[in-house]
């Protein structure tokens, strides 16, 4: 049978409602390295530790606003001097926010997320030169649910 190559992921989180209108949350995620990837795979994933913090405040019983901060550290190995063909390694730091409407059995949410970071990469194949790498992401989420 074919082996599925995948690191292990471990997550733990906690949420606390100090009042009925206010929620604080924290999550920690750890992804293990996996040294048994086949030779054809571009790199062996490294271990990565990420965290996120969030707050949710209900302006009205049906109108929560959410804010958060998070890390998104790369699981590609840190680039080494004198080597070729290494994947880029960029660690990200981000923020998020959103507004929702929650009704009896239904909800509608609009959220945004922005993350950016710097690192190193090798753009030119066959050489050991490394370049500075910048990465930025901006995402808009629209989600909803409806219960009959």
Largest sheet: 8 strands, antiparallel
Q: What is the string of SSEs from the N terminus onward?
A: EEEEEEEE
The total of beta strands comes to 8
- The stretches of 5 or more residues where confidence is low (pLDDT under 50) are none
**Distance between the amino and carboxyl termini:** 44 Å
Descriptive keywords:
61% strand; 8-stranded antiparallel sheet; 8 strands; 148 residues
Give a description of the structure.
This protein has no helices and 8 strands. It has 148 residues and is an all-beta fold. Strands 1, 2, 3, 4, 5, 6, 7 and 8 form an 8-stranded antiparallel sheet that branches. The radius of gyration is 20 Å and the shape is elongated.
Quick structural gist:
The protein has 148 residues and is an all-beta fold.
Draw up the topology in text.
Elements: E1 9-19, E2 22-31, E3 48-60, E4 63-72, E5 89-90, E6 92-103, E7 106-121, E8 131-146
Antiparallel strand pairs: 1-2, 2-3, 3-4, 4-6, 5-7, 6-7, 7-8
């Amino acid at each position: 049978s074919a082996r599925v190559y995948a690191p292990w992921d471990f997550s733990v989180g906690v949420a606390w409602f100090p009042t009925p209108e206010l929620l604080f949350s924290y999550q920690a995620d750890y992804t293990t390295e996996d040294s048994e990837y086949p030779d054809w795979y571009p790199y062996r994933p490294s271990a990565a530790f990420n965290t996120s913090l969030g707050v949710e405040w209900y302006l009205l019983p049906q109108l929560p606003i959410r804010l958060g901060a998070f890390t998104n550290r790369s699981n590609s190995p840190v680039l080494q001097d004198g080597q070729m063909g290494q994947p880029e390694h960029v660690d990200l730091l981000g923020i998020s926010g959103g507004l929702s409407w929650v009704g009896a059995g239904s909800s509608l949410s609009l959220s945004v997320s922005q993350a950016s970071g710097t690192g190193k990469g090798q753009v030119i194949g066959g050489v050991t030169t490394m370049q500075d790498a910048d990465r930025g992401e901006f995402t808009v989420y629209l989600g909803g649910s409806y219960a009959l």
